[in-house]
Amino acid sequence: MKELPVLDTRAAFCDVGSEHMHVSIAGGPPKVFGTVTSQLHELRDWLLSEDANSVAMEATGVYWLALYSVLEDAGFDVMMVNGRQTRNLPGRKTDMLDCQWGATLHAHGLLRPGFVPPAHIRKLQDYQRLRTDHISLAASHVQHMQKALERMNIKLHTVISSLTGVSGLAVVHAILDGQRDPAKLLELCHPQIRDKKAQEVTESLRGTWAPEHLFALRQALQSWEHYQGQITECDRQIQTLLKDITFDDKADADKGEKTKPHVGKGRSVNAPQIPGLHNMLVELCQGKDLTTLPAHTDYSVLQIISEVGTDLSKWRTEKHFTSWMGLAPGTHQSGKRNANVKRSRNRVGRMFCVMARSLARSKDIALGGFYRRLSARRGGLVANIALARKLAVLFWRVSVKGMAFVEHGLAVYEAKVQQAKQRTLRRLAKELGQTVLPMPKTA
Prior knowledge:
Blueprint: E1 12-16, E2 21-25, E3 31-33, H1 37-49, E4 54-58, H2 63-73, E5 77-81, H3 95-107, H4 119-151, H5 156-159, H6 166-176, H7 182-186, H8 191-196, H9 198-204, H10 211-246, H11 250-258, H12 277-284, H13 298-308, H14 318-325, E6 330-334, E7 337-341, H15 347-357, H16 366-378, H17 380-400, H18 410-431
Parallel strand pairs: 1-4, 4-5
Antiparallel strand pairs: 1-2, 2-3, 6-7
Helix pairs in contact: 1-2, 4-10, 4-13, 10-12, 13-15, 14-17, 15-17, 16-17, 16-18
């Protein structure tokens, strides 16, 4: 029996933990290091002294990030691998045996690297994920404000569209300042609200003003305003980082500040308030304007780029890209059996699903017609994932191939669907030995 060749005799594998790092080179005797910075440097120096070429490790929580940065700065070829690739070790399982088994697999070239974005994208990812956490926490405090108002039988949040809008915040601040007159509180609202919903708002502001609920309302408002300040700070950091990435010198930065703002799709409530964001994203994407795609806004493009970067050629085909996100069905074949595999969508896949939902009610976009047509047959969930996959494919094609997307509209899409139905009808008629004739047009 031919032995499996060893491709790299100095391939190392590290079993990452919160307190210890177990490292082995080509399956040799492992060595244990700590996780503080000085001990990570000792691990790096030991690998350099052993002439290690490549280091593989499992993504264990956030514990791998510090070691990854240290080894990346030292010039190692660092690979992140899925833990499922190293779980075939028979017998007892220990960290020492795990690192030896992983190093053996790595030396034989049996480990496939996972995707890790470059350093500047990882910085953008940290800021963007922190900003998303602040948005979620701020939303929870909006619910606390609504609960406090409900306990006082104040129904303002059911009458106006947003409690954190200009009118809603003005009324809440006035309530906390001691104002109880519904007529005076109504005067703080927008003129459209006063014209169309004056009676509803006035009646919704009559309630009990219990001190304990007013206290809860005040604390919830203060917490919400605190997180709004945190979100603004994140926006400043993202703006600074984008400028450092896209502009090489101060002259280019000044030029970017003077560029006319982009006028495009409606801005989301949680979209970052960054001047010139559209121009910086186009510069970051090598001149490709991804917002020309349906459902793609500056905010959504920023979120996707912060996760996958701008070099999507790391996924060889669009099928690899959608499979990585969990938007394509998995396969499990054993003999004559083909089983369906449920695949969980990662963070980027969920973003595309959210973007797909915005097209469900579009009236003049072809992808909206595709969603409604599939939803009628397979249900909304299947249609949403299928449309999210189409959006991901368009994103990959524009980023990698530079293909210009042209929205032909719903009428063109429906005409193509009609032609497909006619071809199917003619094919079935031919199989049955029949002829299909069009109905005569009535005068």
